[in-house]
Design a protein that fits this description.
- The chain is mainly α.
- α1 runs antiparallel to α2, α1 packs parallel to α3 and α2 crosses α3.
Amino acid sequence: MDKTLEIELTEIRPKVLATALKFFRASRLDGEPEDVVQALLLRLWVARRDGVQIRSAEAWAVSTTKNSCISLWRKKGPVRSGVYPEWLSDGNDASTLIEQSEAERMADKALERLPSGNKAILLADIREALAQFNQKPGDVPNQCIF
């Protein structure tokens, strides 16, 4: 290996490894960031050996590391609930929140279509149910009592 390339790879390696570590931690990727870095440095060495003109080896290495990590993340598949840190999530995954929002929207539309007499009966039934659990309408969030 060319001595200048060896020195250049040695200088680039810490920055590329730090970039890979950040991606792996942030996206909770399985595997070793070290493997990504080794593959990347090998690709850089082969490209230089084959005479590929690279203006900035460091910029090429960092952007290729990011692209490799993103490719790994995409192969990992969709994010499942429980993957987010506890401080970032209220315990509901996106699909649950969407389903709840859609159900509330549908219930609101259905209530709007009810004749006023039927709506009064439904609200009376809800108040009666709340009373069985020693609850008042003000104790329950508004969206729960229509």
